[in-house]
């Protein structure tokens, strides 16, 4: 980097070397000025953003900070066991008739004597939303992606159209789809499934067609030479190459969709997200902790399982870098 | 293709030469079918678990058409009330016309009634005793006697008797409900009503050139300020579209994503050096830091968002905090993986000239990983611009909350469409911006 020579060394230099050194130092100085200027601009933007955020917030940061710690202090369950009672819908010794300590009435009875604790049931709904929408979304993306890749589709218009459709599906806010469907179909998991699937098609479609575009075209050439149709070429030349990557991306998407369906749930799609948003909004400490623990365990299990499956399917190739693009 | 002719000897030879093609394991042969059947059975289970059919059957499909039409068109909904033998138009609070404005499709007649034009040969002549419905130029008089409006004989299918009222449908152009005491009109037009100026603005109802002429050359409408600033003020404070509010909410969402990602980057950067095994030699430190990242990452963004919304109240601050906490974990993990993959030669080179440990990292490691770090942060920034909308809807404020509020009224779908367009625009701009930055940082090959 900027390595400014000592004056003692300078004296021994030839004229031409001195010129080079001067130019180099000139460049270093220019670069430093640019760096300083961009850092200053950056800091100004940051300060302005923070000020704007603080102004726009309903509670100001420094005003609310003491309340924040009060809130954490007040958010302690009566006893650690309460968390497990809330989790498994067991009766609480603190029951005073309020819903805060009423864990038992939410039980989901399967038979007359066997029940599933409510939070587990809600978690199952959320997980099913995530899995179903991953299946639907990846199927859609699979069908679309071949039409977006330049090595399989010659028509520029088709490619352009399919890519734009994917982009819009990817960027379209999920909550709007969920909200519109909730208005039509009434609030529930189906709105969440359709919203998450819609987004999944766009997000996976992009990753899929990039994989297809990077496929080795020699098998395709061979099949083309022997007179195979377009479908046969895709099936026997492209598909075997890209399938492992497709599966890997789909598994990664499952992880993301578990989180997405939790969030959509909180906005009104049902499932654990909705229960969580209600319990934290009403200051039900034990219930909230029970759900946080359940969610944490679920997310870790899903992540680990999908990582294990990916390793088994395609070796130790890392696809973590694709996360942001999804 | 002609069929292949293979004799017995060839067959044997091929079988012997390529055993892996002809003797595949059970999973290789049936794996795909098993997976397909499992997926199908699972979907069928979910189909009944989520009550798909009853939900779709009970859906409000008639309202769905209206909601979707509201995205790109607007409807005026006057009620023509019969009062003392006169017809008096009455508007709801969402009226799109100022008091006393002349409306070209709703005209008073000389006998105290009103004419409602539905385009083409379709119109209504409303008087308190009779409503003349013209469909494709043909007259169908609806008589109003006592507390009942009655359908004339031979009326087309577009008109129908519904209890004591008569409904007339004109397709996209609108519909009318003829009752004994009023006619409820819905008249639909393509486009968004009063998008630029609301009815209180002096610029209302003027053409583009008219407004431009006023702004550039016209007399001051308000002596206190120039016409340009008045126009801007009227635009931003447009009562029915709330441009100012929506743009400020959009800004909040962008700030959430920007500041959240930036802070996460700044915090994850040093922590990743602690977590990387080849840089910090203490195993407990590596392990602890990595589990810390996992913890931050695994708690859903939703949980962080709701938690901080409870603490700081709705607004961008909980959004920033939620993105910051989740992404510190995620970026820390990605960064430490990148650090563990660095080329050791550069570090050794710097070390061999006797540099201090910090200088070794600065000149031996950072130049290698910085492009990856920046590229990853840009990816996260891009994706957070999208997730900040959803986080906002949960309670963190910004455009997400505004969207949710507009959708809950079930009457503001045009405003929803407007916000969706803004979001799509912003997402595209930021995608391209971050792509451009990334390819500059990473060199030509991109990432």
TrEMBL record, chain A:
The chain crosses the membrane at residues 33-53, 129-154, 175-198, 288-309. InterPro entries: MetI-like, MetI-like_sf, PhnE/PtxC. Keywords: Cell membrane, Membrane, Transmembrane, Transmembrane helix, Transport. GO terms for molecular function: ABC-type phosphonate transporter activity. One of its GO terms (cellular component) is plasma membrane. It is found in: Cell membrane. It is a multi-pass membrane protein. Pfam families: BPD_transp_1 (PF00528). The keyword Protein biosynthesis does not apply. Residues 123-306 form the ABC transmembrane type-1 domain. Its main location: membrane. CDD domains: TM_PBP2. PANTHER family: ABC TRANSPORT SYSTEM PERMEASE PROTEIN P69 (PTHR30043:SF1), PHOSPHONATES TRANSPORT SYSTEM PERMEASE PROTEIN (PTHR30043). Belongs to the binding-protein-dependent transport system permease family. This is Phosphonate ABC transporter, permease protein PhnE. It comes from Neorhizobium galegae bv. officinalis bv. officinalis str. HAMBI 1141. The lineage of its organism: Bacteria, Pseudomonadati, Pseudomonadota, Alphaproteobacteria, Hyphomicrobiales.
